[in-house]
Design goal:
- By secondary structure, the protein is of the alpha/beta class.
- It is 42% helix and 20% strand.
- The strands form two sheets. A seven-stranded mixed beta sheet has the order 3-2-1-4-5-6-7, sandwiched between helices. A two-stranded antiparallel sheet has the order 8-9.
- Helix 4 links the parallel strand 2 and strand 3.
- The relative contact order is 0.16.
- Bound molecules: ligand DQB and 5-O-phosphono-beta-D-ribofuranosylamine.
- The ligand Nc1nc2ccc(CNc3ccc(C(=O)NCCCC(=O)O)cc3)cc2c(=O)[nH]1 binds next to loops.
């Protein structure tokens, strides 16, 4: 399946989808500084990502063919370029309405033959018209255990609520923000003294497992969305 990824920022989720060899290089570079057990877990995680997305024999067939950012000069665009993935910047400030911006994004996705759209740190709320065009083929990763802590600043909400466990959620995108059917979740322990930054870093490691897993479920047709917005498992 041809996949398009919408980003607004660093794009670590994008990176882990495609896990280009830059990751392997990073791993080699990092080897000298990591404790042995951390090294093993990094290799395991990296290996599972490479297997999940790059290895064609796994029949996953999800290939990222286009990355669109609504902001220029963000790290995510460099990651895509390093991985040889075509990129586009479509600035929302260049359009008179939210709908016109969304339709410009839609046109580029269609032109690239995209079949599944992933939101990876994309920070613009999409119109119902766009969602209608991509419903069932549009997924997002949220840095909390939905339905808890919807919207922006999920980590801040979790820390302020004093919960001891948080996590991340991959879900189908519906017009109602962060309310679509849940594809995959994984929990993350909140440690004493955690800040938004330390928590975000720990949750992102898990996002990089959960999002490729959710993408594979949709790309292989194991899961689909029914007309009532409910998940249907086809196995
Ligand atoms: N319709 C629909 N669209 C989305 C767009 C992005 C994300 C990613 N997570 C996001 C969740 C919330 C926001 C948000 O409230 N941002 C502040 C307003 C920014 C703006 O002016 O647009 C952005 C992204 C999820 C959704 C979704 O669940 N449904
Ligand atoms: N949607 C949320 O926005 C952040 C983007 O991170 P990155 O993928 O740009 O590094 C991630 O925490 C993701 O859950």
């Amino acid at each position: 399946k041809r996949v398009g990824v919408l980003i607004s920022g660093s794009g670590t989720n994008l990176q882990k989808f495609n896990s280009a060899d830059t990751d392997t290089l990073t791993l080699n570079h990092v080897v000298c500084s990591l404790q042995y057990n951390q090294l093993i877990s990094k290799i395991v995680m990296l290996q599972s990502l490479i297997d999940a997305t790059v290895d064609p024999s796994r029949g996953t067939g999800a290939e990222i063919v286009l990355v669109i950012s609504n902001k220029a000069g963000v790290q995510g665009l460099k990651r895509a370029e390093n991985a040889g993935i075509p990129t586009k910047v479509i600035s929302h400030t260049a359009f008179k309405s939210r709908l016109e911006f969304d339709m410009a994004v839609h046109a580029e996705l269609v032109a690239a033959g995209v079949e599944i759209v992933c939101l990876a740190g994309f920070m613009r709320v999409l119109t119902g018209d766009f969602v209608k065009l991509w419903r069932g083929r549009l997924i997002n990763i949220h840095p909390a255990l939905l339905p808890l802590f919807k919207g922006t600043h999920a980590h801040r909400q979790a820390l302020e609520a004093g919960v001891r466990i948080t996590g991340c959620t991959a879900h189908f995108v519906e017009e109602d923000v962060d309310a679509g059917a849940i594809l995959a979740q994984e929990s993350v322990q909140i440690e004493l003294g955690d800040t938004e930054e330390s928590l975000q870093e720990r949750v992102k490691l898990v996002e990089h497992k959960v999002f490729p897993k959710a993408l594979m479920l949709v790309a292989t047709g194991k899961v689909r969305l029914d007309e009532n917005g409910k998940l249907v498992w086809t196995e």
